[in-house]
Amino acid sequence: MSLQDQTIHRYRLFFPQETLRQISERTGIQITRVFRLLNGKPMKLGEFEAFEGAIQLKLSENKSFGRLNSLLEESSSLLTNDELSRLANYVERKIENKKYTRTYLQPLLDAAVIA
Amino acid sequence: MKGLSSLERIILECVGVRPLTYEEILRQTGLMENVCFNLLQALIIKGLLRSEAGHYKISDISPATMEDLNGPEARKAESLELIEAVLEQESDRVFRFLKIALDPRDEKIFLAMLSNVESFLKDAHRRSQSTVPVKNRRVVFWGVGEVDRLLKQIMIGG
Questions:
Q1: Of the residues A34, A45, B114, B149, which has the maximum number of CB atoms within 10 A of its CB?
Q2: Could you say which of A80, A93, A100 has the minimum Cβ distance to residue B38?
Q3: From residue A20, how far is each of A30, A37, A41, A47, B103 by CA, in Å?
Q4: Which domains can be identified in chain B, with CATH numbers?
Q5: Do the bridges between strand B49-52 and strand B55-58 make them parallel or antiparallel, or are there none, so unpaired?
Q6: For chain A, how big is the Rg over CA atoms in Å?
Q7: Chain A residues with CB inside 8 Å of B34's CB?
């Protein structure tokens, strides 16, 4: 998956129900351009930053995420491989369970592309 | 992910007894419809479940896969998941955590009592497993550890 695809995928995880118009309003990118980007047109640096900026803004609403990030950074130099593996397994399980309880995203993405 | 999540396990426990329809799985597990559907799809993709004539049944699972699903690491992670859920319960929570002094004699008595409790639970399960749906079963756990050894374990990161 390219960096651009990853960014769009992450954006969709945070804003699964947004229409093209709402994405356009949030990122400041023209609606027709948003349509093209979601359909695989290469992003310009400014557009990439606009999507990333929206994601970062959403992340900053959650204070625990920043804490988790800095703890992960610290754990990488302090904890053993086994301990890190256990932490990773724990987080992975949380994510897997959450995915089961969320509606599958692809139809929503398709709907937004068509909208 | 190593092993199964508790959500995946409950589906396999249900269809492990006999093949079930989607509605029967819903009734047995008490899961929400979309969650149940997602889980069934995931288990089919993982090759653990198959669908035949409207019934879901467990696929032939290789010993290596079985080890991956039921190995000690996987079971430990799954137990922790359920224990954590018990701790997070907001109502009707039954949980005791004690640090107690036991002399060797009392410890033997205590372990014998636990053994009795286990026998009782196994008998109770045998009697009721055909009538009580999986969703209405109880998660019961206990464990004992010596403080000194546990602290050492924590220090070495075990």
A1: A34
A2: A100
A3: 9, 11, 15, 14, 70
A4: 1-94 (1.10.10.10), 96-158 (no CATH)
A5: antiparallel
A6: 17
A7: 101, 103
| pLDDT of the residue at A114 | 47
Q: Whole-prediction pTM value?
A: 0.74
Q: Let me know: does A38 contact A11? Beta carbons within 8 Å.
A: no
Rounded CA separation B103/B56 (Å):
52
Give chain B positions within 8 Å (CB) of A96: 1, 5
Q: Do B77 and A100 touch (CB under 8 A)?
A: no
- Asked if B68 and B76 count as a contact pair (C-beta separation under 8 A), the reply is no
Phi and psi of B93, rounded to 5°? Answer: -85, 130
For residue A12, CA distances in Å to A23, A28, A40, A51 come to 10, 16, 14, 10
Distance (Å, whole) CA B150 – CA B119? 27
Contact A98, A90 (CB under 8 A): no
Stretch B81-88: mean pLDDT: 92
Question: For chain A, what's the residue count?
Answer: 115
Give the residue-averaged pLDDT of A56-78: 88
Q: ipTM above 0.95? A: no
Tokens, residue A22: 């709402």
Q: What is the mean pLDDT of chain B?
A: 91
Would you state the pLDDT for residue A43? 93
pLDDT, tens only, B15-34: 988 899 999 999 999 999 99
Q: How many residues does chain B have?
A: 158
